[in-house]
Design goal:
Layout lengths: L2 H28 L6 H8 L3 H7 L3 H28 L5 H11 L3 H13 L3 H25 L7 H22 L5 H20 L1 H6 L3 H8 L4
Helix pairs in contact: 1-2, 1-4, 4-5, 4-6, 4-7, 5-9, 7-8, 8-9
């Protein structure tokens, strides 16, 4: 490839990235419906033609924006989880990190897009593979997070997804219940419960039922 060709490719990548970041900023600031492609192009300081060159439809740029959002979130979750696994960060700080993630920009942006997809079949179909990749990546992080001698992979995934779903549910509540003390009580309680689920009697009790005994007795595929 010529030098000119490489420069054109670099400019194209930069423009695409600016459009994606502008989409995220615009949706976060004004909401999904108000974030028109015209406003996105203006925020990114590119022409509408340049936007349409990279993303022919609004659904295309929304899908790319969600993909970037979740990829960034996955990288951050993985880095913090690795710090906890190695002992560089206490488990309680990991809970705090997840709460900040699921009560801030990351969560509100994903909720805007997911809520819209509920009544837009085409958008939903385009976003499902993106979200599936996110959850598959999280499953891999959770398996590495827990000591397999203490919790087998399936149990580790359940425990950590319980934590994420708790934080996500609390994040939804923050929209109409601005009550920091209420959330702080739940967070502090979960900090006490989580170590017992990962390596204590609470976890043993949680997975003592017949469903888990049957599943855990099956040979690995």
């Amino acid at each position: 490839m010529t030098r000119t060709g490489r420069q054109q490719q670099a400019r194209s990548r930069i423009t695409r990235e600016r459009l994606i970041r502008a989409t995220l900023d615009e949706i976060h600031e004004v909401g999904y419906h108000a974030a028109t492609t015209h406003r996105i192009a203006e925020r990114a300081q590119v022409s509408r033609g340049a936007l349409l060159h990279h993303f022919p439809t609004r659904a295309d740029i929304v899908r790319a924006a969600l993909d970037t959002l979740l990829s960034d979130g996955t990288a951050e979750i993985k880095a913090v989880s690795e710090d906890v696994r190695t002992g560089a960060l206490p488990l309680a700080d990991w809970v705090e990190f997840l709460w900040q993630l699921f009560s801030g920009r990351f969560f509100y942006l994903s909720m805007e897009m997911i809520t819209e997809a509920r009544n837009d079949p085409a958008l939903r179909d385009s976003l499902i593979p993106v979200v599936q990749r996110f959850h598959a990546a999280l499953d891999g992080i959770w398996i590495a997070f827990c000591n397999t001698d203490t919790r087998p992979p399936r149990e580790a995934r359940i425990i950590l997804n319980l934590t994420v779903n708790l934080m996500r549910g609390m994040g939804v509540q923050t929209v109409l219940r601005p009550d920091p003390d209420y959330y702080r009580d739940l967070i502090e309680a979960w900090k006490a419960v989580l170590p017992q689920l990962i390596g204590g009697a609470a976890g043993d009790a949680a997975f003592a039922g017949p469903r888990f005994r049957v599943m855990n007795s099956k040979p690995a595929a």
